[in-house]
Backbone:
């Protein structure tokens, strides 16, 4: 007998018919003798509808009340799925995040899970019941409803799997696994049978929204075997697990991209100690996350300072920078919110030089100008103009042999 935690995303529970199909699947698994916990998302489009409703009511909705409204989508799904299970003769019970006690901190809109209480779930499982939990939501120490950030139901499922020490956490969605890149951008993308936590974490952090970043962090930290599968098609999906020495590692596992970036430059700043902190201080004080940073020192003793932020933060960051530039006596502030980041990810990079250069050459061959570069042990990221996203991703996908079975032989040797 295994203990399995399953998560069904928005499109998988997007209609009464689909919820019925999910119930058939869950029921069959429970009847085979396995213990099952199911975490569900809101029906597709519902969270966006609720967010729009809140925006209609208030220009800047209070974050606490926003969580109250957007958490209702998942409550509808747990009730519908549980009804469907009961109708099929499968004993089941639904729980909201508050009922289960998915304890989080109080950061509304992106709360972090602190603790998952298991007693009620264990009792149900031992009594042969399927436990259906609302994804995406929690409760803070004051009893207030919180949410975990967009895509947060993945993290609900992994947190429950970690707390119950489940045998596997299965993320059911509208693709049959994790691909070398988003199949919506590159139809030649290839499904991966397995990927390491570390690589998946980079992919998610660099923009692959197939899994929420925190769910991968959690799975890695507690070593929860995580599998991404198609809700309604047979297949073994993609297993995300620890690095396996026995499996020959691919050079590059995937290409991630992020359209939500914007770039800001303060040009001609006198080059003195403390400049970076003076430029970035007001930005971080405004709670704006900074991604890439590049500083160039020119021959004239002045420096150009460039960084990227989330596109939603672009206007505010631009205004703040203009103010600081006056104080610092900089020559100009230049901004561009039509940029994207494309990244290559792979643990194989550790042992192979030349990946970055092949990347740069491939982009150059397509006449794509690189604006910024950043590297770490297992990734290389570049910032390019937004209009080159598709071309960039597809040419790199081909150059690194990702749409065929083999890796680029000249590098693999
Ligand atoms: P759900 O509603 O089930 O949580 P999501 O929309 O959050 O589903 O995630 C699935 C989507 O992630 C896919 O439809 C796909 O377009 C996108 N995606 C982005 N990058 C990848 C990738 N590398 N592999 C697979 N899917 C990806
Ligand atoms: N319903 C939430 C969202 O749309 C959470 C999730 O689907 O994981 O982001
Ligand atoms: Mg999702």
Residues:
């Amino acid at each position: 007998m295994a203990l399995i935690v399953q998560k069904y995303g928005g499109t998988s529970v997007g209609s009464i018919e689909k919820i019925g199909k999910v119930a058939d699947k869950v029921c069959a698994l429970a009847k085979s003798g396995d213990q099952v916990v199911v975490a569900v998302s809101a029906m597709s489009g519902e969270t966006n509808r609720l967010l729009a409703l809140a925006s209609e009511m208030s220009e800047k909705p209070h974050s606490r009340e926003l969580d109250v409204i957007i958490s209702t989508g998942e409550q509808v799904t747990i009730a519908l799925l549980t009804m469907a299970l009961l109708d099929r003769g499968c004993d089941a019970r639904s729980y909201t995040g508050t009922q289960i006690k998915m304890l989080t901190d109080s950061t509304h809109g992106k709360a972090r899970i602190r603790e998952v209480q298991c007693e009620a779930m264990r009792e149900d499982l031992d009594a042969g019941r399927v436990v259906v939990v609302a994804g995406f939501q929690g409760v803070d120490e004051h009893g207030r409803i919180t949410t975990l950030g967009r895509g947060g139901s993945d993290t609900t499922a992994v947190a429950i799997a970690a707390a119950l020490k489940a045998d596997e956490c299965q993320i059911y969605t509208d693709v049959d696994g994790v691909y070398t890149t988003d199949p919506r951008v590159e139809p030649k993308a290839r499904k991966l049978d397995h990927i390491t936590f570390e690589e998946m974490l980079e992919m998610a952090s660099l923009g692959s929204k197939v899994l929420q970043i925190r769910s991968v962090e959690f799975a890695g930290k507690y070593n929860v075997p995580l599998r991404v599968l198609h809700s309604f098609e047979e297949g073994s999906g993609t297993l995300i697990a620890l690095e396996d020495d026995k499996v020959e590692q691919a050079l590059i596992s995937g290409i991630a991209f992020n359209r939500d970036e914007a770039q800001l430059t303060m040009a001609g700043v006198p080059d003195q100690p403390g400049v970076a902190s003076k430029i970035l201080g007001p930005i971080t004080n405004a709670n704006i996350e900074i991604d890439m940073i590049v500083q160039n020192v020119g021959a004239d003793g002045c420096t150009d300072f460039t960084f990227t932020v989330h596109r939603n933060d672009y206007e505010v960051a631009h205004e703040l920078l203009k103010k600081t530039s006056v104080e610092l006596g900089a020559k100009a502030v230049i901004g561009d919110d039509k940029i994207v980041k494309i990244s290559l990810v792979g643990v194989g990079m550790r042992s192979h030089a030349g990946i970055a250069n092949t990347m740069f050459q491939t982009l150059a061959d397509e006449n794509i100008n690189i604006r910024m570069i950043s590297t770490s042990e297992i990734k290389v990221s570049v910032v390019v103009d937004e209009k080159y996203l598709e071309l960039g991703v597809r040419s790199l996908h081909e150059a690194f042999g990702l749409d065929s079975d083999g890796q680029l032989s000249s590098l693999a040797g």
The chain is about 35% helix and 25% strand. Residues 406-413 have pLDDT under 50 and may be disordered.
